Every structure is written in structure tokens, then in C-alpha cells.
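User: Structure please.
Assistant: Input sequence and predicted structure:
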Amino acid sequence: MPKTLMFYNAFITYQGHYTNIDIPQFINRIYNLDSYNRYVDNPFGSFSLIEMMESTSNPNNNPLDRLIGIASYRDRKPFAGNRGTDNISEIPSDVFELTTCLFTNNSRLAVIEYNHFGIRPQNIERYFNEFLDQNAGWEFKLIPIPTTNSFQDISSSGDIKEIELKLDLTNQEVNLFEANVAAQSITATVGRTANDFAEAGINVATIKIGKGRFTNRMDFTDLLNFLRNVDFESESLASLKVKYTSPTTGRTQTVDLKNEGILKRVIESSNTAFISSAIELSEYYYNESGNLAASSWQSVSTQLVTVNIPNIQRLSLARL
């Protein structure tokens, strides 16, 4: 199944200045705290750094990188059961979604997998800042790496193979599009479908649009007009992936237009366990992406202030 990877530059700043503090070393110090002090419960959710691959086990001979798993605990727990039966039982333990991240040692890069129910990058920032004294001027920052205009590339391609929308229907109102559209258009059809899902009590849904093998009823212009009508700021839209033939590279590729300004890559993955996901993430970055965006940090700051890493501790008590 497809997995989206998001690319950020990672820094610790001191009194507004970017520092040369090593992010993997910072992560080490958090992970070395006991489990109670790694757990954070704040207004944005409940999180904990619960996994970190041993440096001696890191793939691709990069023992100074950090491959970690951050848990995002769910307030509303699902039920357990067996398919094809009416069996249902409550789950006594806390339930969480695990997000796997790679922090490279030399390029000040963070590669974060997208997990719809997992911790988001802005909450990773908030989580790590729980261990820094921001009143003294310390702050952890994730800075999105800008990418080229994918929408322009799609518009010039002439060949959209598939559009996939993932919807978050937990909000009472589902607003996916910016304006009124023709009743018989693709846009109107998708809008009605999303509202039908929401009215049926479905919280998460995926809609795929494609030309298919045996029909030409939907042409490139129809699909492009659909994309132009999408409200990319809608809270109901979790992701919007477009599979198309790029005129820039000549290859079929998939991009996620939900966050156009953030460098992303979509890979095929069947892994859910932490170790296998971490190895997959590292191998993609070093063996397939060609160390993508390894020098991008220099566009943020070419002069880093030399400082010692501050004391790392949990600055407020978790509410268990």
C-alpha cells in the first residue's frame, strides 16, 4: 500500500539563532529518560517516544542516524473482534498509532512517515519542545523543505492516470470544494459521495478517480478542472494524491497536493512493525532517493552558532 514520506530540516535554536546541536544526540537524551518522563499529555494529544533502533543495528552503515517511533495515543478506542462473526470485545490497554521517523546525522534532515491517526509534524515539534526550556530561549524546529510546483507539472502533463482522495469525515460539515459546480461534474459527484459517507457515520473514507481501461468518458481536462475546484485547506481533506506522467522526468509518479509546499515522496510499503518500517525508510532514503535534500539545510542557515546541548528534562508533569 502507498506510504507518504515528508521531508523537513531539523534544528535546535537558541535565542533565535540556529545552532550546531546534533539532533540525534538530542533524541538520545530524551530516549534515555524513563518511560514516565518521556510521556507527554498536552492540549494537542498524548505522545511518547517509545521506539529507537539501536545505533549498531542501523542499516546502510549510518550508526549516527536515529530511527525512532513516536506513539500517538487515541482517546476513542476501537473494538476487537473476528471477521465473519459478531464477536466484539473492548480493548483494555491504551491504543496508539506509531509514526516512524528518520533523523540524519550530517544533513540536519527529518524524514517523517504520514500516518492519518499518528502524530503530525507540528506535534512532533511540540513534543520535543516539552524537553527544552523555551523560557531560556531554546526551541526545536521542523522546517518544511519547499518543492517545485507539482500542480504546474500536472497541468502540463496531459496524462492523469489516477486521483485518490483520503477524507477525514469527523467534522460535522464536509467542505471539499471552493465554489458551486455543475451538477453533472466529477466535482459534484465526489462531493455528494463524501456527504453520503459522512451522513452514514463513516469517519474515514478513500475515493479513487481514474479513466479506467475501457472508457474515455473522463478526459484530462475533466480531471484537471476537478483538481482546480478542490479546497486544499479543507479540514475534511486528509490527502490528495495524483498519479500522472511527468513531462519533467518522463516517468509516471505520484504526488500529494494537500501540502504543496512540503517535499514529499510516495513509496509502496507493506510494513507496519517498527523495525521493518524503520529499515524501509532508511533504505529508501539512501538507496532509492539518492540522499534527497541532503544539502537543503544550507538554505535555512549557512552559519550555525556553536553551543553546548542544554539540559534535557521533562519540564511539566504528564497527566496519567
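Residues 150-260 form one domain.
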